[in-house]
Amino acid sequence: MNTVIPKIRMGFVGGGEGSFIAQAHHQAAGLDGRFELVCGAFSRDAQNNLRTGNRLGLPQSRCYSTWQLMLEAERALPAEQRMELLVIVTPNHLHAPVASEALAAGFHVFSEKPAALSLAELQDLRTRLNNSAGLYGLAHTYLGYPMVWQARDMVRNGVIGNVRKVLVEYPQGWLSQDVAGQGNRQAEWRGQPALSGAGGCIADIGTHAFSLAEFVADQTITHLCANLGVHVEGRQLDDDAAMLFKTAQGASGVLIASQVCAGEENPLSIRVYGDKGGLEWRQEQPNSLIHRSLEQPMRTLRSGTGQPWLCAAATQRMRLPAGHPEGYLEAMANLYGDFATAIRTGGAKNTAPGVPGIEVGLRGMAFIETAIASHHSDAKWTPLECNV
Amino acid sequence: MNTVIPKIRMGFVGGGEGSFIAQAHHQAAGLDGRFELVCGAFSRDAQNNLRTGNRLGLPQSRCYSTWQLMLEAERALPAEQRMELLVIVTPNHLHAPVASEALAAGFHVFSEKPAALSLAELQDLRTRLNNSAGLYGLAHTYLGYPMVWQARDMVRNGVIGNVRKVLVEYPQGWLSQDVAGQGNRQAEWRGQPALSGAGGCIADIGTHAFSLAEFVADQTITHLCANLGVHVEGRQLDDDAAMLFKTAQGASGVLIASQVCAGEENPLSIRVYGDKGGLEWRQEQPNSLIHRSLEQPMRTLRSGTGQPWLCAAATQRMRLPAGHPEGYLEAMANLYGDFATAIRTGGAKNTAPGVPGIEVGLRGMAFIETAIASHHSDAKWTPLECNV
Amino acid sequence: MNTVIPKIRMGFVGGGEGSFIAQAHHQAAGLDGRFELVCGAFSRDAQNNLRTGNRLGLPQSRCYSTWQLMLEAERALPAEQRMELLVIVTPNHLHAPVASEALAAGFHVFSEKPAALSLAELQDLRTRLNNSAGLYGLAHTYLGYPMVWQARDMVRNGVIGNVRKVLVEYPQGWLSQDVAGQGNRQAEWRGQPALSGAGGCIADIGTHAFSLAEFVADQTITHLCANLGVHVEGRQLDDDAAMLFKTAQGASGVLIASQVCAGEENPLSIRVYGDKGGLEWRQEQPNSLIHRSLEQPMRTLRSGTGQPWLCAAATQRMRLPAGHPEGYLEAMANLYGDFATAIRTGGAKNTAPGVPGIEVGLRGMAFIETAIASHHSDAKWTPLECNV
Amino acid sequence: MNTVIPKIRMGFVGGGEGSFIAQAHHQAAGLDGRFELVCGAFSRDAQNNLRTGNRLGLPQSRCYSTWQLMLEAERALPAEQRMELLVIVTPNHLHAPVASEALAAGFHVFSEKPAALSLAELQDLRTRLNNSAGLYGLAHTYLGYPMVWQARDMVRNGVIGNVRKVLVEYPQGWLSQDVAGQGNRQAEWRGQPALSGAGGCIADIGTHAFSLAEFVADQTITHLCANLGVHVEGRQLDDDAAMLFKTAQGASGVLIASQVCAGEENPLSIRVYGDKGGLEWRQEQPNSLIHRSLEQPMRTLRSGTGQPWLCAAATQRMRLPAGHPEGYLEAMANLYGDFATAIRTGGAKNTAPGVPGIEVGLRGMAFIETAIASHHSDAKWTPLECNV
């Protein structure tokens, strides 16, 4: 009891000015007070890099001009000063290369998704991970929401019976027009295959829907029938996807992901139906979970500490009593919290329990590639093959 | 002004005790006071037939033991007593035969959907209809909702721009278990191909979703990629359907119809997105229409007389000021109202303006057959061919 | 079984062109097919009167120029033709006089609320009613909603424990501006004390809130502390009311009624809390009833036939399965249905069971007068005295 | 640009194990990375104090056994190590004494509300504050929500016209039963007048409703008519309050605050109506603001960066794009952020702009005392006198 648990020393690659997701990571990591930012390579633009580091309270000496230099320099520092965890918030094409090098250099890695640009690249990363002592996590933030864990728990405990149907959707509207051409930097790099990968919408948000579906419904998707679309002239990558799917456990479902549903914000949602009832969760109202049943009126389970009908996995991801809304940053902070625990107490098999790991990344990447293949295929069903 | 407009004399085929939909028809027809029930052949069970007629205020003389006798006897009555409109609320297999004979006998017909058991049977009915002087309408009740007309008007007026995406779904839960085997009569006949047709869920509610999509989005669906399911042992017809689709106008979409979404009631819904915005309508909250836009905050248009921002087609289908909920029966009553107007003022081309006619029936039937064909096909896309 | 139950012959006083509420009565009475309009004195304007009767299918002979003539003439008709039930949908000042004469002439009366212009006038009406053989009902439509009965049943059965708090509100916005001065006829007569009575908003909708509170919470309100307001220059009657109240059973509460909550439609709502839980019902979503509890997650009970967890009183007021919305007209039709049953089977003590009777009228009138007295009083509490 | 802005060094009084609100303060302060915890006097229980400090990463040397010692010791430290801001999260009775001493010792103070146990005590604190160089803020967290600022901005800009009605409510359910007697520590101290002050519910949450009403509606409440209640045997302080009120600007309203609305969580809400429209905000869905209008359909303004129709004051309090929910901790973090800015850039008149200051505290305390006086008075209206 007398030893203060030191904060985890954290460095960032990426996240210069204008990066929404990097700011979210800083806030999420700050929320529970278990992390300390010690270094960064925020931007290839030297001034941006320094300004960002300065704003975040770093001395110039630990604002590195490249991530390679950062890995090298940090590795040379005394253990008690050295960065422990590297957070990767760059455009997609750097995720795997940076992660590989960081793991090889002895650091833990928390990476934005997707884990790589291709399944091949990712399998290589897995090999490196397996040969390292590092822990690896993916920022599938939506898997940090407590009511997502509650839903999964109810499915696993048979509350809705055998799962038959999974309906998951993620309709956004922000790419309805040519925002990349109008200077939106988020849209700009996402529109370039070299930076973003082969998938556009299917990779950016389709993977969220996919991972949520497999996680909550406790199913393994085995076949896809996908139709992708591009709706803005000159856009190179898909901005819209819809697909039918089947699971190994015998369920079927629909996955919708789109960035041209004009006017929509971020309403990721999932519904799972079994032979006894169904569950519904909507990210824009993340503190509610609807449970429908053949045997009783509809119930709305609400997030909040101290409610005996919620499972432990959900409750331990909550900070506040019911009626005090928690949101996106809290969900991401739950991933950080689990990562912190794993770093201090030791994870398992290169994974921080509670944090989506390389397997989620592999399945997500297989999903992207299968969806694209299915789109180009005349066959109805394309198998999704990924043994993780 | 001095001549009272006489009520329309109406007869029923089907609708003996226990028929939910027949009761709804009686109530909807009664709502606006423009119809008078004068005869019926409610049930093949003689006692049920008489009890039903009695309960509905009919003399025994006009409770007929068969629909054939009814057509014959009513035809022989003086014009001012004779039934004018025949309402068909039997199981599906009788829809087309009764309609054909009734039209031939000089009566107008308002039929429950589907219009026939097969496309072939329905094309025959169309020929008969074209050769008759009768008006023909289909009880696609959801097309009677005022905010559905409002949505269609906004789409047609370009409020959301060019339509790109159509998401329509109709998830029910009442066939999650073997209710037919447990004595539910609605489920019983619906489960028999000879009475119901080749489609189960796809015919019963899939057609509602299909017709709503084409109506609101003002699109013609040309290709389907469908996956149907059967989830209860011994059930002969599909209880679940999901499909991707494409339209002649270049949009794509998803249609979900299911009767095994355990715990769901009747949440038919549609979302349509164009390049400027989107619309959302949900049947369980039928008095609201959500309009999202790239250029302004989300708006909720609400049903209710006297609101200048609603279109005429919507307003004339409303009875009450905003905040006084209207529902399913009022929507059906709107179809009856349009039918009454057409009967008294003359319709056009065998159709009552405002009431879904034979073309909606034909497209719906083509939809059913195409969905089933697609389900059995290994090809991704199956064309939906139906020139109406 | 061989005798057809004849429809109830109904006449109207009031309800010429432009009357929203009269049209609602026609529709509600028509919905279940148990009433037949046989006569009317719709308007003092002769042409309006005839036009209205004509539109409603009446012969000129039974469109009477005054209600007095109607009572006299109908009384003289043979019993099997004669009007049985008089529906009063005039401005308020005629409610009691017409009702009194009609009861004296042997007719049943279904009156719009308020039952009279003053408590004194209403007590006189009660005396006449008690001396008659007639049944008397008040169109407190909101008490016809099935989920209102469900809520009352749950309160009575102790589901929420001992009632502590009652929060009832009825905020409308349609009198936010000087609509009477702009030609709105509904607003015009409501603004004249001689036609409307001493209360404006407090009488027009405050009584709805009051009656709903006493009905659902199963409480008797004994003390008021009211603040009324007038917000438009030149308006004579209150357009806004708020008050604290106490009940004989020990609960306390708040009642809000306003017609200057700009932009609001008709969101009458009630919340009742006991020591174990609470109930919430909102008229604009009338098919849902929310049940909160200390011991389980929030439940939403939904209207719809065939749900075993709903009480008989609620279920028998429903026509459709869950998910098929019923609304305002169906609620009013429930009052008509109960009135029809009472007329054919005999009511009790001048009342049709299920239909708000003279007692509800008396308490409502006492409420209006007490609220006005309280508003003008400097004392905090003003007793509401009304033994019915 | 080359100088890193140092984090603000923060100390806590109160917040030992089991304190929900202290944990929320730590998280809120951590969210944006501008604060650093340097010391604390968390609990009078020495072990609890040390454990808490240890968990929070403090060395034993800066875990003080009493707040008096902490003030003294910190004051003696070099300026660059010394605590700058004292956060007070004790039970109510210590708020003012600790704040007074801290201000006198040269520290800034951020205090949980209420600011004191009585108006007299608080006026004394104000004098001390005015004589100090410190900044003083109150954790009225709900005033940190961005859509609350948006609502206020719209009111001030006349979007809803002249304000007529203000309806504010805060119904909780957690004191429905004798939870203090069952070991709930939050309930325990709140139930003791010596620790909590003269008001129970009225102080604990009534002040939130009061401050929100004055803030959003931009009104000064001048008269109250209150009814308080106690619903659990042996409870000393009110657990329920309802009141009518009037404002200096001519509006009227209703305030409801209760802790015995069994089953309710934390649905603080406010509705403000002017002569042109109305606004509605609900804390449990804090990212939405409903705008009703006489001239257009209902609009729902949604929180999220980058929306040109939101005001600057709202947007600068948001971190994420629309559809990424922010909640209670983010609202509190907004207060911390404004406090940080004021500390680093200089506040004004002992206040951090954007953070509720001593004036909000004074009006809140006057509200509590006036509500209690009104409850005990037979007069309808009790003036709320507080010139700040």
List the SSEs and their pairings.
The structure is a homotetramer of 388-residue chains.
Chain A (H helix, E strand, L loop, with lengths): L7 E6 L6 H12 L3 E7 L4 H10 L11 H10 L8 E4 L6 H10 L3 E4 L7 H12 L5 E3 L7 H11 L6 E9 L13 H6 L2 H4 L4 H17 L3 E9 L10 E8 L4 E7 L10 E6 L2 E6 L5 E6 L4 E5 L9 H4 L12 H18 L12 H19 L5 E2 L5
Helix pairs in contact in A: 1-11, 4-5, 5-12, 6-9, 9-12
In short, what is this structure?
The structure is a homotetramer of 388-residue chains. Chain A has 388 residues and is of the alpha/beta class.
In quaternary terms, these chains amount to homotetramer
The biggest sheet of chain A, with number of strands, parallel, antiparallel or mixed sense and barrel status, is:
9 strands, mixed
Looking at the overall shape, the CATH architecture of the largest domain in chain A is 2-Layer Sandwich
The first-level CATH class of the largest domain in chain A is given as Alpha Beta
- CATH homologous superfamily of the largest domain in chain A, by name? Dihydrodipicolinate Reductase, domain 2
What value does the Rg of chain A take, in angstroms?
21 Å
Q: Roughly what is the average pLDDT of chain A, rounded to an integer?
A: 95
Report the portion of residues of chain A in β strands. Answer: 15-25%
Q: How would you spell out the order of helices and strands of chain A?
A: EHEHHEHEHEHEHHHEEEEEEEHHHE
Protein name (chains A, B, C, D): Gfo/Idh/MocA family protein
InterPro entries (chains A, B, C, D): Gfo/Idh/MocA-like_OxRdtase_N (IPR000683), Gfo/Idh/MocA_oxidoreduct (IPR051317), GFO_IDH_MocA-like_dom (IPR055170), NAD(P)-bd_dom_sf (IPR036291)
Pfam families (chains A, B, C, D): GFO_IDH_MocA (PF01408), GFO_IDH_MocA_C3 (PF22725)
